[in-house]
Amino acid sequence: MKSGSEKLTDKEDRSCHVMVVDDSAIARGIVTRTLEEEQGIKVVASVPNGLMALKAIGNHEIDVVVLDIEMPQLDGLAALPQLLERRPGLKVIMVSSASQRDADISLKTMAMGAADYVAKPMAGLGGAESFRAELVRKVREHGARRTASARKKHTPAKSAASTGVQPAASRKPARKLVKPEVIAIGSSTGGPQALAEVLRNIDPAFTQPILVTQHMPATFTALLAEHMTRYSGRLAAEARDGEPLEPGRIYIAPGGKHMLVEQRAAGGAIIRLDDGPPENSCKPAVDPMLRSLAKTFGERLLVVILTGMGCDGLKGSQTVIEEGGRVLAQDRESSVVWGMPGAVAQAGLCEEILPLWQIGAAIARIAGGEGK
């Protein structure tokens, strides 16, 4: 038994260990205080640039790094791959301004291995309650996954059957399968990387329009569309109110608006952007998109729920199933966070629960009318 005066070492302490890297002493102080006020989070290092971060990573057991982009000597973009090389499995959350340049860099860092990002508010960090709440939530989630991964190395692996989560198709009578006319994808944390992997594996010959709701602010969603165009070989763009659904297009829900669809009297469907309140604390949210698609397309709809925190997409997927549509979900092992896909999987709504690398092929198979 340790006396009250004895301190736990980094390895003995089971809290989430965080390093804050930012050249602004004020920003470091705000982020550090914000995190240390939370039970179960401990800031073990606070440094002003990437060089200092590389030194600190060898002296502490660190689960999560909160990494600024703009710094002297060694910036976040240059420091990221070196941090990941020295500490495989490290969770790095990028902190950037909402400028187009920094948003673009944040998306690039996720392709390089960053786990997530948080956008700095324009007015500074001092009064930004939403920024601090988002930061704490993401540090907790990624810290929990990091420590769980470390523990898993010493725990026998469970089979899919032992988890109690099986595809719905394995428990329900077979039904006639209809070729989908529209594909909908919902994602959040880890979504940009997952979307890139999925979309690059769908043959451009399949012409169904693809609607994507990814939890992101406005500047980021416009850039996400540009990235998805490059990865997929299809035209991807932020959706515009009133535009028709066209074959082969990818429509990205713009930050700050829910993306819906509406049946036209003359035939076909059009996009509607909705400025209603957030759902599941998100705007855009996946549930409104799925509800409108289920109402419009019914059994001619295929839904894919990818990695993300929370349960956005669960209620919408329930409506999709009620209307005869089909739902796939990413599996736990390949998800950055198994919140959203886990919610639909555990509710028994999924026809298939697949690793990320198999999802693109599954979409192509179903979109081609081959069914299972």
Number of domains: 2
Which structural class fits the helix and strand makeup? alpha/beta
Name the helix and strand elements from N-terminus to C-terminus, one letter apiece: EHEHEHEHEHEHEHEEEEHEHEHEH
Number of discrete helical segments = 11
CATH homologous superfamily title of the largest domain: Methylesterase CheB, C-terminal domain
Low-confidence stretches: 1-6, 153-163, 170-174
Quick one: overall form? elongated
Q: What does this molecule look like?
A:
The structure is a single chain. With 372 residues, the protein is an alpha/beta fold. It has two domains: 16-149, Response regulator (Rossmann fold), CATH 3.40.50; 167-367, Methylesterase CheB, C-terminal domain (Rossmann fold). It has helices spanning 25-36, 50-57, 76-86, 100-112, 129-152, 191-200, 218-232, 286-297, 314-322, 340-346, 356-367; strands at residues 16-21, 41-47, 64-68, 91-97, 116-120, 182-187, 210-214, 236-238, 250-252, 258-263, 269-274, 301-305, 326-330, 352-354. The strands form three sheets. It has a seven-stranded parallel β-sheet, with helices on both faces. Strands 2-1-3-4-5 form a five-stranded parallel β-sheet, with helices on both faces. The longest helix is centred in the middle third of the chain and has 24 residues, at 129-152. It is elongated, with a radius of gyration of 21 Å. The N and C termini lie far apart (57 Å).
